[in-house]
Automatic annotation (TrEMBL):
One of its GO terms (molecular function) is proton transmembrane transporter activity. It is a single-pass membrane protein. This is ATP synthase complex subunit 8. It is found in: Mitochondrion membrane. InterPro entries: ATP8_metazoa (IPR001421). The chain crosses the membrane at residues 6-29. Mitochondrial membrane ATP synthase (F(1)F(0) ATP synthase or Complex V) produces ATP from ADP in the presence of a proton gradient across the membrane which is generated by electron transport complexes of the respiratory chain. F-type ATPases consist of two structural domains, F(1) - containing the extramembraneous catalytic core and F(0) - containing the membrane proton channel, linked together by a central stalk and a peripheral stalk. During catalysis, ATP synthesis in the catalytic domain of F(1) is coupled via a rotary mechanism of the central stalk subunits to proton translocation.
Length: 53
């Protein structure tokens, strides 16, 4: 079985690295998380502050 030249290993490493990075980026950016609507913001209503001075 013939041995592979170092440039062959380098090109394989670069191709697989680019493929892995692109695959990871596509998986990361393909999902948009849902932001839950919190009920806490409705509890605190802004009341006018009546200072006594």
């Amino acid at each position: 079985m013939p041995q592979m030249a170092p440039i062959g290993w380098l090109s394989l490493f670069i191709i697989f690295s680019i493929t892995f990075i692109l695959f990871s980026m596509m998986n990361y950016y393909s999902v948009t998380p849902q932001t839950p609507k919190s009920q806490a913001s409705k509890k605190y209503t802004a009341s006018p502050l009546n200072w006594k001075w």
